[in-house]
């Protein structure tokens, strides 16, 4: 997958700049969505357990505390390794999808190289299933890897594909999925609806990254929003339900505010600082008094320094 040229990794997550020579200004769509907390401890614990019980070294390590600790440390990172491997696979599949679109657009492409990379990793089935979906749905690409900007809310992102299917303009996001126990593609997360609706609400799209040239978003807000799950056995396209778009857009807006306040509090500097005890009482009578100060518990109220 092409790395968006205007995207930057920052301490506040991925952010976008307006040109190659300007500083990052707004968060990416995925950074905003990432503000929603998702508890993955159960999933991570399951992967760690599976990693440990399937480790061939486990039997020999029983009775040795040091060896068991080594295996446990290795198993503890199972979720991180799984995530990284899935991300790399997703990049390879996305890159192939992009090259197919570029070929259809009549521009320079690397379809053969992208497919060969999938072959090297034993992932040819992803390309085969993608090609079947592409032909079955009669996809006519309009643009691939489109960087967009919204000034009103303040965010940017890169859309996988804008295409025409059966006469409708579609905003399309590809998700590479593993298989469930039945050999079917695992279901998509509903957070993809936020991603799609944020893309549809674009106000500008990038024309020239070097010069920082943008143009008004040409597709309006009447696009069909489609998420496409690509697996080894099937491709499952789904549409974002039109009646749900408003609620997901409001949720995205709220998460954008969460990101903004998080950035502001981080830039404000340390939020806590050491506090010295109050000065000794001026009189012996006050020293021996058991009366409480107005702040309660014998501690005078503290007024924040200017």
From TrEMBL:
Residues 265-306 are annotated as: Disordered. Residues 281-294 have a biased composition (Low complexity). This is PD-(D/E)XK nuclease family protein. It comes from Nesterenkonia aethiopica.
